Amino acid sequence: MSTSLPRFRPADQPLTDYDVIIIGAGSAGLSAALVLGRCARSVLVCDGGSPRNAPSPAVQGFMTRDGTRPAELLRLARRDLEPYTTVEIRESRVIELSVQENGFEVTAETDATRPFRATARKVLLATGVADELPPIDGMRELWGRGVLHCPYCHGWEVREQPLAVYGRGKGVTGLALLVSRWSKDVVVCTDGPGGLTDKNRQRLAAQGIGVREEAIVRLEGSRSRQLKQVVFTDAEPLPRHALFVHPHQHQRTTLAETVGCRITAKHAVWTDKKQQTSVFGLYAAGDTTAGLQQAMLAAAEGAKAGININERLTKEECR
Fold this sequence. Notes:
Layout: E1 18-23, H1 27-38, E2 43-47, H2 70-81, E3 87-91, E4 93-100, E5 103-109, E6 116-125, E7 129-132, E8 147-148, H3 151-154, E9 163-166, H4 169-179, E10 186-189, H5 198-206, E11 210-212, E12 216-221, E13 227-232, E14 238-239, E15 242-245, E16 248-251, H6 255-258, E17 282-284, H7 295-317
Helix pairs in contact: 1-2, 1-7, 4-5
């Protein structure tokens, strides 16, 4: 546990174990840790396990790291933290977060030891979200390779291939039109009545996008988890190279809700322009918050949160 103290801590300011505890060790959490480490802040990063993009073969669109495997990107990020001795990373899952008079306390569990507690003046939530994939055979098995969520992340790799887009209504229309930027052969699969308005159908037809409303039995793929075809109940299979879907999501932890954070209608943690949640001293960054979801953007939000946390701590210290 780090024992270094901020240089300007007033004598009457209570001591905590750390200046900042970061919950989550993905792009957002490690980026924030780098900024705070460079500010000589004492930081504990709690790494609760594999990130959301672990099934993906590569992180795309990340400047200087385009095409890097997700695990390798995180390894490099951890290596960047090694010179900053005030930053500690522990393989631990935070199971409880509570607001204290002088900051926060977390309770975390590890595989090797008994649960431990630690206190901090500020906390950053970077725990991300979990995807709720449609209950179709093959959807989970092909997730990250043959079933994709983001054309900006994966569209280039499947360009000019026959593609499918899963969903219904206005949402699937918008996603299909976006995917058509990468392929001229796009088919919407609604798995039953698609709830498409006449305007939806006109927009799709204008771009040559087909619509299949038969019920889907399963997705069939190769051993390398590449999609081969969409199989329907009462129709010929549809050969496809990949399928895009925007699944529903939920927060990977209930920590924000438990301490009373404001949650948006889309189940994201609300933050202001400084990444501050509705609970004072508690910040959030990355997929935990609302907005576009990419590793590069999560890292940027983490860096922004780190700067704002340090400036808030400095303001409190330099009274």
